Amino acid sequence: MPSVKLQRLSEAEEGEHFRIEKLDIKDGTMKRRLLDLGFVPGCEIIVLQKSPLGDPTAYRVSNTTIALRKEESDHIYGERICDDNK
Description:
By secondary structure, this protein is α+β, with helices and mostly antiparallel strands. The protein has a single domain, classed as Ferrous iron transport protein A (FeoA) (SH3 type barrels, Roll). The chain contains two helices and six strands, in the order ββαβββαβ. Strands 1-6-2-3-4-5 form a six-stranded antiparallel beta sheet. A hairpin with a 6-residue loop joins strand 3 (44-50) and strand 4. The chain is globular, with a radius of gyration of 12 Å.
């Protein structure tokens, strides 16, 4: 199986689909909060909209819209995936 270069969620563009591989967060409270919101490994999310100044960004996670600041999404790693419906 070829290795995939993981990217930060904050680097994904609007409309892209992203599959989470890992959360690299040392702060246990923040990590628990993100996991509770649905940012779990294996989960597919969609980048909905970046604010006019670029921070925060809205994501679709399990049929819910959640906004994260860049400092939070910088610690979520995964890969961009293709949407077969496009």
